[in-house]
Amino acid sequence: MRLIDFFDRGAALYPDRACLVGGAVSLTFAEVQRRTHRIANRLISAGIGPQMGAAVLSPNDADAFSCILGILRAGGAWMPLNARNAVDDNAAILADNDCRFLFYHSSFAAAAEEMRKKVPTLIGLVCVDRAGADPDLASWLAEANDDPCYVPSGPHDLASIWPSGGTTGRSKGVMLTNLNFATMIANFITSMPIRKPPVHLIAAPMTHAAGCISFPLLAQGATTVLIPSADALLVMESIQRHKVTTLFLPPTVIYMMLGHPRVREFDYSSLTHFVYAAAPMSAEKLKEAMEIFGPVMAQTFGQAEAPMLCTFLSPEEHNVVGDPKLEKRLMSCGRSTVFAQVEVMDDDGNILPPNEKGEIVVRGNLVMKGYYKNPKATEEASRFGWHHTGDVGFKDEDGYFYIVDRKRDMIISGGFNIYPSEIEQVIWAHPAVQDCAVVGVPDDKWGEAVKAIVQLKTEGAATVEELSAFCRERVGGMKTPKSFEIWDSLPRSPVGKVLKRTIRDRFWAGRVRNV
User: 3-297 in CATH: which number?
Assistant: First the structure.
């Protein structure tokens, strides 16, 4: 099946049910389906062929989500963009992966113009929400026909190119096929069966896990409610107002909800699955979440290369509080899903027995086709016939996986991947800086926070405030370190290499997990 076929299943079963709800917009499945045919026909007439990349740059927005579905119906490869990225980062993602078309929200009009200049493969840009833009979605669709659009697409054809990254921070295009998504959907439905059409709240960015899990839910007639941001109070109000059954949030937003003075004022009884992922969650805060939101917490583990559901910890498996032998499972990310093989491997390719630490590896139809135009990176990630996640962990005797560290230096802050080397390059460019190291440190709000340790030149002078402003201007707020420390010198190996692990361990001392 094509990825768009799962949406069409929901439309066939529930044509008059609300499909996309956001702000003043409420569209039925039938209305969204008609719109996607028009978008697809218009894309094809504009020169977008099968498996060509097309992107959407927008906050959570019903019209923008319709464009995602339209790209899929046209047979294109949807390219999600993180709206919080710096413009240059997103432009590089589009250029590296040969993006041909960009739908953008008016709040990113200036960024879209920059991308028009920097991405030579772009042949068209359309603003999804502002009348009078050049062009806007309504006027662009005025030339489209309403004929049903069917573009054949096989199981191994591309449905999406997701941006990922390596230790250098340079994005890689993760090629995901129809089969990859069908496997993810099968894993979702077998892990979280539902009895009636759900109500799905997209509060975290629709370009990440929150958008990814919309596809198995749409196939079951889900009403998808989109709110502009994961503001804690807005999330809690929306759960009550829309009787939300299903949502995904990274732990950092759940922490904000738990810390909100009004968290106990709202009715959460409609919830069936409150999914958390993208970063480890505090066991103590997880207990608090179960007490407030009910027995609905569910954890998944995955990554762009093996989307969303490599492992799963069900709401029932969370019901271990008070049992000393089983309560440790709250620290795990669950057991392998039905349609994914997950193991722990040493550096020589040997599968390790229970309780021995190694790299978590995955294989099966959930795993990506490869990295776009990057066979070397694909080969490196596929050693010994398994996909290497870069996460270090172990499996216990009952098959529960525990993530304890990461092989790479990547930092996960608030559910987003941040690559230290990119930030270090910026700090090194400051005229007063001799050397630096960027590491992730424990943070109650973000899970991990970006921290920069800086060594100034002998004659150099720079304040923490100056360094922060210098970074913010060049990499944006998300990647700018939350804190800086200025040290007289950095620890180094005999050959002069900065010992980042030594620096990082100083801040993680005494903790069970180093993520």
Answer: 3.40.50.12780
**CA atoms of 64 and 58, how far apart (whole Å):** 7
Q: What are phi and psi of 66, to 5 degrees?
A: -60, -35
Can you tell me whether residue 511 is helix, strand or coil?
coil
The DSSP-derived string for 457-481 is -TT----HHHHHHHHHHHH-TTTS-
Distance CA 71, CA 164 (A): 20
* 3/50 Cα distance (integer angstroms): 13
At the topology level, CATH places domain 411-508 in GMP Synthetase; Chain A, domain 3 (3.30.300)
In the numeric block, the tokens 């008070």 are attached to 322
Whether the ω angle into residue 375 lies within 30 degrees of 0, i.e. cis, is: no
CB 263 within 8 A of CB 452: no
pLDDT attached to residue 444:
84
Q: How does DSSP assign 148-160, residue by residue? A: -------TTSEEE
Asked whether the beta carbons of 177 and 156 are under 8 A apart, the reply is: yes
**pTM recorded for the entire structure:** 0.84
Regions of the chain where pLDDT drops below 70: 165-169, 405, 493-497, 512-515
Is 233:262 a contact under the CB 8 Å cutoff? yes
pLDDT of residue 167: 37
Q: How far apart are CA 21 and CA 204, in angstroms?
A: 15
β 199-202/223-226 pair status: parallel
Share of the chain above pLDDT 70, in %: 97
pLDDT value, residue 493: 65
**Residue in 182, 245, 247 with CA at minimum distance from that of residue 214:** 247
